[in-house]
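Late entry, written up from scratch paper. The run itself happened at the end of the previous shift, but nothing got recorded in the book at the time, so transcribing now.
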Amino acid sequence: MCARLAVAIAALSGALLSPSAWSQAYPSKPVRMVVPFAPGSATDIAARMIAEELRASMGQSFIVENKPGGSGQIAAETVAKTPADGYTLLFTTNTTHSANPFLFKKLRYDPVRDFAPVARIMYIPVVLVVDPKLPIHSLAELIAQAKAQPGKLSFGYGNSIGQVVGASVAHTAKLDVVTVPYKSTPQAMTDVLGGQVAYTVADMASGNAYIKSGKLRAIAVSSAKRSSLIPEVPAIAETAGFEGFDLSAWLAIFAPAGTSTDIIHALNAETNKALAKPTIKERIAQFFAEPAPSSPEELGEFVRQQLAAWGTRIKQAGIEPE
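Output as recorded:
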């Protein structure tokens, strides 16, 4: 009897302690996917798209839960403090994992220490747009106009990347412009459309219709290279004095630190399979975004590079953390 009991206990212990044995059954219940922005946002729509693909391929529901507020801090802190069992994920952007550490004095999470990278999803081109009634067709012309009329041109922004790109351009070119903060990018674009503000920074998902119709004029993208979606628009880095400029908007999935590597790699493999599907590529193109699959290790290195880039730009621009 004792021998049989010992064998049973040893077998049970092996099953409980073996990460590979545990993860083979994953997921055995619904997975929560926390999004730091409101329903209907680009991040929310993308999260629901990937959640449906993971449900189909992994056989369990991936339930999107929106936790907006605090520039993404509420959602990030929530996931960082949950058990590292693979059943709570963070579907987020550069806001929580590149910008926030330098925009807030007391961040309630660490983007590297508190998270395990899972998979990068997409890049979203971010573009500098101006009121087309202004005689500005390039970043160089914007700089010239602002220097000719110090304190006259106004810049609006509705999110962290807009704030940082706009402040970085003004700092690098030593411009005296009026900065107008908005609660959202669409609000900033509305005032550019109405002529109340001269220029703003918009993601292509929000700004494409206005750009294509000529209601807004795109003069530069903030990524290191031109976007394949609007190749006629130069990168900020192509303008003299801005060499090496690169601030990208991106989406990715993270799990709490300590999550089993088997679970991480299973999620990564299924996410990358989804991103390779023609139907998903088509849907991502509707965001005016570009698929950006990665391994967990590549995403981790990417985050560290992005933190360095954002930190440098934010400090150089003189933006004080709140």
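The first helix runs from residue 2 to 17.
(Scratch paper discarded after transcription.)
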